[in-house]
Design brief:
The chain has two domains: 4-50, no CATH class; 54-148, no CATH class. The protein has four helices and nine strands; from the N terminus they run ββαβαβββαββαβ. It has helices spanning 20-23, 34-52, 89-96, 115-127; strands at residues 4-8, 13-16, 29-32, 58-66, 72-81, 84-87, 99-100, 106-109, 145-148. The protein is globular, with a radius of gyration of 17 Å.
């Protein structure tokens, strides 16, 4: 399945596998070259995550599925804001280049460690690569916490 990227009338970057909906349909948008579209889509996801998350927030992980081999798993990610869960998996998949899972959430390959922590750690390093000057260890991977539900 081929993916295409479109800049919508509102300026949002949209990922689609049906470009004709945007070029021949009622949806209006400008098709983008694949490489540029993928970069802009990833940047947009990071910006959205920075709008939602604050340093020190806890990202909640929910295990949805483990492969028969145990070498990959589907994990969903949420943050609680104003006593409501906000689904982060779609943004995280785009920002960190993970694949969506058929079981909901994202497919995370690997085993032998806390894979929810690994994703949240990588997310924090991606969102805040410069770290936080008030922390003595300067490792931005610890700017978010992970917790399993």
């Amino acid at each position: 399945m081929s993916l295409f990227y479109v800049k919508s009338e509102s300026g949002r970057i949209v990922q689609t596998n049906n470009i004709s909906s945007w070029t021949n349909g009622f949806l209006k948008g400008e098709p983008l070259p694949k490489k540029e579209g993928a970069r802009l889509y990833q940047d947009q996801a990071k910006d959205s995550l920075r709008d939602i998350l604050r340093q020190g927030d806890t990202v909640h992980c929910i295990l949805r599925h483990v492969s028969a081999s145990g070498m990959s798993r589907a994990i969903d990610f949420y943050v609680i804001k104003d006593n409501r869960p906000i689904w982060l998996s779609g943004y995280i998949a785009a920002a960190l280049d993970y694949k969506p899972s058929g079981h909901t959430g994202i497919t995370v390959k690997g085993c032998g460690m806390d894979m929810g922590f690994a994703v949240v750690y990588n997310l924090a390093r991606t969102l805040w690569p410069e770290g936080n000057a008030s922390r003595t260890d300067k490792d931005s991977g610890y700017l978010l916490k992970s917790e399993w539900i």
